[in-house]
Amino acid sequence: MTTTAAARPRPLPTTVALGLARTRIEVLQYFRERDSVVFSFAYPVIMLAIFATVFGQDGAVVGQAPDGSGGIPFAQYFLPGMVATGIMLSSFQTLAISIAVERDEGGLKRLRGTPMPPSAYFLGKTGQVLLTTAIQVALLLAVAALAFGVPMPTTASAWATFTWLLVLGSATGAVCGVAFSSLPRSGRSASAVVVPVVLVLQFISGVFFAWSSLPTWMQHVASVFPLKWLAQGMRAVFLPEWAAAAEPAGSWQLGLCALALLAWLVAALVLGARTFRWQRRDDG
Amino acid sequence: MTTTTSADPAVQVRDLRKTYGTKRAVDGVDLEVHRGEVVAVLGPNGAGKTTTVEILEGYRRRDGGDVRVLGTDPARGDRAWRARIGVVLQSAGDLAELTVREQLHHFARYYPAARDPEEVLDAVGLTDKARTRSRQLSGGQRRRLDVALGILGRPELLFLDEPTTGFDPHARRAFWDLVLRLRDEGTTILLTTHYLDEAAYLADRVVVVAAGRVVAHGAPHTLGGEDARRPTVHWVEDGTPRSVRTDRPTAVVAELAGRLPGEVPGLQVVRPSLEDVYLELIAAAEPAPDPADPRPLETVTR
Question: pTM for this one?
Answer without folding.
Answer: 0.84
